[in-house]
From TrEMBL:
Gene Ontology terms: cellular component: cytoplasm; cytosol
Protein name: tyrosine--tRNA ligase
InterPro entries found in the cross-reference section: aa-tRNA-synth_Ic, Rossmann-like_a/b/a_fold, Tyr-tRNA_synthase
Catalytic activity: tRNA(Tyr) + L-tyrosine + ATP = L-tyrosyl-tRNA(Tyr) + AMP + diphosphate + H(+)
Top EC category: ligase
Pfam families named in the record: tRNA-synt_1b
Compartments (UniProt record): Cytoplasm, Cytosol
GO biological process: tyrosyl-tRNA aminoacylation
Listed GO MF terms: ATP binding; transferase activity; tyrosine-tRNA ligase activity
SUPFAM superfamilies in alphabetical order: Nucleotidylyl transferase (SSF52374)
UniProt keyword Nuclease present: no
Length: 724
């Protein structure tokens, strides 16, 4: 007989101590015959009775009301539920391994995770961290910021209509509903939060797997159950937070529909069929702890006996149980097996086998490289490569690398986030050409996904990729030698090799406390903690992972990226990886105006941009800060040192004869000497600097005026950057 909507609603609603929202649940059951319910857990050890029996009761209720269940699981725990009587027939319960599902559909999963992270400030995410039993922010790891974002994403990834989880998961489920508001999604997941059983001992708000006396576990023997219940906190006449009465209310009565007490007093045996009846007798004192405890122990042992029998008599179950006991006894947090879900490893156990195998593979490839640059000595190669960095960590490692590896891999990257200033355009071209001339292979990581995390271009990945193609076009026009240069789009590469990438990211996140990761957040220009989004915690972990994912030997990035590159070297120490990435941090050009430590795309007067017209360059240089006789902090001299001299190997100043006449400087030191003495004045230097910069930029302007594809691309970029 078909069940009415009213009856289905009554059954489903009975599961939740709280329902958000009842009217939405009613509407869902009216319109959808088989709603999808989501439940999940970390396979992290023993199963207590709430997870075993209460989940079985709830799942059986849901399937009886026509719901379909998606659960993320571990093999031993599935075996427990089968033995406990969970109704798995008819295909209405589906066990899904998060590691398999995520790895098979990374292009669906991770964009949801990162979008949730991008839209939520760090304080909002940390409020969800009680789902992992963590509250103190400074004690949180980066992995514990990933966790709520991932759990929230699970709901949408599994297309869940109902979230059927404990009250302790309420905050992250509410986050999912808030996310629906943010993205204008009409159908919000309905939250059914079930009751959380307290621990058995006085003052224990919840059961803890770390304390075996706090709960009845599904594999507890009869004598163990009897002893635990005998020692359980059970104050006479008090019902609230009385663990014995809670076990009766939420386990025994739903299971047997009755609770039988054999009293030693004159009342004799009595069978209760409702909790209200038990509660009334207990408050009056007609029912004592000495009566309840043996009856409760007996009832629990009746429930658990089929589970015990299954794990004693079934050979497969027996072997599985022995394996789980082995994990517990040996306390091997580093062990990874198919029986464990990768999500639990994110919080407690390293993903070391995956990560280690990737590192070993990278080191093997490093050793077997056979590309050659026989014409140039190691010393000359070292001189060229080292000249790029304002700082090198460490020089002896760089020399050793160039001695042993003919074609080292250099990593550089950028966010396609708008206009390209001259440092990004010309200085990068100079550095890349130096590296390739010294036999290096340069991998330029187009961090389109990172730009989305950092909310550039309004988080629109299509617009971000348009800007990325535009920047590549600029480098081509500037004269970057692309023979040994590979442009790699982060979104494409990460999705195609998700099984390699995300284990590294999560391992880095798991191993580093939140304050350590936050010290890297200046790479995104963010420092105010409360203003950081969760995505901006993801960002350093991902950028650090990029280095290993791309098998980089050398990180060739700006001084502003130094902290995250040092994090990568620290991670090598932590994982016992021998070959650390060498850090070559190049100089950061200051802004053109007084007091500007760095160029800013948001202030067009702070820098020369690659598409600036000749008149724009002339005007900006004329207005730039250039104090006479002072070299330090002088942006005009910095442009000469890091752009003009490396490009032309000289700098020509045209002056009237009475002002010293025309002079060509072939070294920066020679120019500095004249400038400090006053023999070279800003009024002479600035026009000559403008002329040199315009000579460098002219081929870029010509390319975007004459090449139809480039012209169309620039037009699209102007629309994107104008909007954002």
């Amino acid at each position: 007989m078909r069940m009415s909507v009213e009856e289905r609603f009554r059954i489903v609603r009975s599961i939740g101590e709280e329902c958000i929202q009842e009217d939405e649940l009613w509407n869902l059951l009216t319109k959808k015959p088989h709603p999808i319910c989501y439940d999940g857990f970390e396979p992290s050890g023993r199963m207590h009775i709430a997870q075993g029996i209460m989940k079985t009761i709830n799942v059986n209720k849901l399937t009886s009301a026509g719901c379909k269940l998606h659960q993320t699981v571990g093999r031993y725990l599935i075996e427990v539920w089968k033995a406990a009587g969970m109704n798995l027939e008819g295909g209405n319960v589906e066990f899904l391994w998060s590691s398999e599902e995520i790895m098979s559909r990374p292009h669906e999963y991770w964009p949801i995770v990162t979008d949730i992270a991008r839209r939520n400030k760090l304080p909002r995410i940390t409020r969800c961290c009680q789902i992992m039993g963590r509250k103190e922010q400074d004690e949180l790891t980066g992995g514990q910021i990933f966790y709520p974002c991932m759990q929230c994403a699970d709901i949408f990834f599994l297309k869940a209509d109902i979230c059927q989880l404990g009250m302790d998961q309420r905050k992250v489920n509410v986050l999912a509903r808030e996310y629906c508001d943010d993205i204008k999604r009409k159908n919000k997941p309905i939250i059914l939060s079930h009751h959380m059983l307290p621990g058995l001992l006085e003052g224990q708000e919840k059961m803890a797997k770390s304390n075996p006396n706090s709960a009845i576990f599904m594999e507890d023997e009869e004598a163990v159950v009897n002893l635990k219940i005998q020692n359980t906190y059970c104050p006479p006449n008090f019902v609230d937070r009385n663990p014995c009465l809670e076990y009766i209310k939420y386990i025994v009565l739903p299971w047997f529909k009755e609770f039988k007490v054999e009293q030693k007093t004159k009342n004799g045996e009595k069978t209760y069929t409702s909790f209200d009846e038990i509660s009334a007798d207990y408050v009056k004192g007609d029912l004592q702890p000495a009566d309840i405890k043996p009856a409760l122990a007996k009832a629990l042992n009746r429930i658990l006996q089929p589970v015990r029998d299954h794990f004693k008599n079934d050979e497969t179950a027996k072997a599985l149980f022995q394996a789980v006991k082995g994990f517990e006894a040996a306390k091997l947090p580093n062990h990874i097996s198919n029986e464990q879900d990768k999500r639990s490893l994110l919080m407690e156990n390293p993903i070391e086998k995956e990560v280690e195998s990737l590192f070993l593979k990278a080191e093997d490839e490093s050793a077997s490289s056979n590309s050659s640059n026989a014409q140039m000595s190691v010393e000359e190669r070292f001189r060229i490569v080292r000249s790029i960095g304002e700082e090198c960590i460490q020089e002896e490692e760089l020399l050793n690398l160039l001695t042993k590896k003919p074609q080292p891999i250099c990593y550089d990257g950028f966010e396609p986030s708008g206009r390209m200033h001259i440092a990004q355009g010309v200085m990068k071209t100079i550095n890349v050409n130096k590296l390739t001339s010294a036999g290096c292979k340069v991998k330029i990581w187009i961090a389109d996904w990172f730009a989305q995390l950092n909310n550039k271009m309004g988080g629109d990945l299509n617009k971000i990729q348009v800007v990325g193609r535009y920047l590549i076009e600029i480098w081509k026009a500037t004269g970057m030698n692309l023979e040994n240069v590979e442009f790699i789009w982060s979104s494409e590469e990460i999705n195609s090799r998700a099984h390699e990438y995300w284990p590294i990211v999560m391992d880095i996140a798991r191993r580093n406390k939140l304050p350590r990761i936050m010290r890297c957040c200046q790479i995104m220009g963010r420092t105010d903690q409360d203003e950081l989004t969760a995505a901006q915690i993801f960002y350093p972990c991902m950028q650090c992972a990029d280095i290993f994912f791309l098998k980089a030997d050398i990180c060739q990035l700006g001084m502003d990226q130094r902290k995250v590159n040092v994090l990568a070297r620290e991670y090598c120490d932590d994982t016992k990886r021998k070959n650390k990435p060498i850090i070559l941090s190049h100089h950061m050009l200051p802004g053109l105006l007084q007091g500007q430590e760095k160029m800013s795309k948001s202030d067009p007067n702070s820098a020369i941009f690659m598409e600036d017209e000749e008149a724009d360059v002339n005007s900006k240089i004329k207005k730039s800060y250039c104090p006479p006789n002072i070299v330090d902090g002088n942006p005009c001299l910095e442009y000469l040192k890091y752009v003009v001299f490396p490009w032309f190997n000289e700098f020509k100043v045209e002056r009237k004869a009475e002002n010293g006449g025309e002079k060509t400087f072939t070294t920066f030191e020679e120019l500095v000497s004249d400038y400090e003495k006053g023999d070279l004045h800003p009024a002479d230097l600035k026009p000559a600097l403008s002329k040199a910069l315009n000579r460098i930029l002219q081929p870029v302007r010509d390319h975007f005026k004459n090449d139809e594809n480039a012209k169309a691309l620039l037009k699209r970029v102007k629309v994107c950057t104008f909007l954002y």
